[in-house]
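Q: Got a minute? One more chain.
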Amino acid sequence: MPDYPLITLLTDFGISDPYVGIMKGIIADIAPKARVIDLTHMITPQNIREGALALDRAYPYFPAGTIHLAVIDPGVGTERHALAMRTDHYLFVGPDNGLFTFVIKRAKSSQKPIKVVRLENPRYRLEPVSPVFHGRDLFAPAAAYLAAGAALENFGDVIENPVVLTMPFPEAISNGYHGEIWAVDHFGSLETNMESGLLSGIDPKQIRIQVAGKVVDHWVRTFADGEPGELVALVNSSGRLCISIVNGSAANELNVGVGTPVDLIIHN
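A: Always. Here it is, folded:
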């Protein structure tokens, strides 16, 4: 571990209650040299998939050795496992409920090493453990002890098959691809599950996007390439097809959200 280890925090706790501050207090007590960066605490409550996508967008941009602590935990206090995980560059701590789906998929697809263990060792927790606040009693202490130099192997037994969400991926159709909206950001832009590779070698003038009865045929490189109020398509910073309204909210204008079908039609 570096002299000043880095811990990121991602939760659905919001900012009006003291829960995030309590977790930071635990970290400061156990690992006073650790630096803590908030990714977001505004994930929709209990929305594991939204949290997984947000974590996937963020974690690769941190220095090697960063500990990513994430808590979206509708199953807190149940039989679901609490885990710590090591990949080739990072450590992760949180519930074993699919929150780390994209981390696991990335590691497996690139054949990178990955090790997942249960948080079982009472040495690395706060007692008594509340059945409704594992962020305080299990996850924050585990991340802090890792930052202080504890070995991953000391936390508990190996989890051979951590939970991975079943994600809807685009399907090839006769004249293009059928997908859906995966995420809606703060600006109301609609991120789809179609990655930019699907567009490789295709003239954008041949492509039409169909969503909620609308056809989007203006492809832009960046938002300012369109006119204010115009519905446009572009590849966002995560490398996925995105539908936006320049200086407006596509989600509000089209009255759509996560799960809305999207078709990418290629005209020859």
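A: The radius of gyration is 21 Å.
Q: Perfect, thanks.
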